[in-house]
Amino acid sequence: MDKYECIYLKENMSSVVGKMAASTRSQVLFLYRLLMKESSKFPSYNYRTYALRRVRDAFRANQNIEDPKTVQQLVKQGMDTLDIIRRQVGYTPTHRVHEGE
After folding, report:
1. In sequence order, what E strands does the chain have?
2. From which domain of life does this come (predicted)?
């Protein structure tokens, strides 16, 4: 999935989430898959396993929520988390600056 496809999906999902149609389950599953896919891209084993575990635990903890407003808020929070994960995965320091040099 390239950058433009991700942007399109995010914009499309944001507009669809606002409507909260009967396909809420598919939207949540789509978000879950995206979060798991992006979390698995962390180069560090510790960060990767932590992120995957947090995503899994968050979705399990909220699996019985049926209130549409609450689900909408959680999806928004998930999209924000997805943005954070993408920024963190994309950030790879190439060198360290030593003070005193």
Report:
1. none
2. Eukaryota
Distance CA 52, CA 13 (A): 22
Q: Which two tokens stand for residue 101?
A: 């040099």
Q: How far apart are CA 56 and CA 20, in angstroms?
A: 23
Contact criterion met (CB below 8 Å) for 32 and 71:
no
Mean pLDDT of the chain: 81
Only one residue has tokens 């560090």, namely 44
Tokens in use for 21? 């149609």
Asked if residue 24 lies in contact with residue 68, where contact means CB atoms within 8 angstroms, the answer is: yes
> What pLDDT score does 90 carry?
84
Neighbours of 12 (CB within 10 A): 10
Q: With 80 as the cut, is the pLDDT of residue 95 above it?
A: no
The tens digit of pLDDT for each residue in 32-81 reads: 999 999 999 999 999 999 999 999 999 999 999 999 999 999 999 999 99
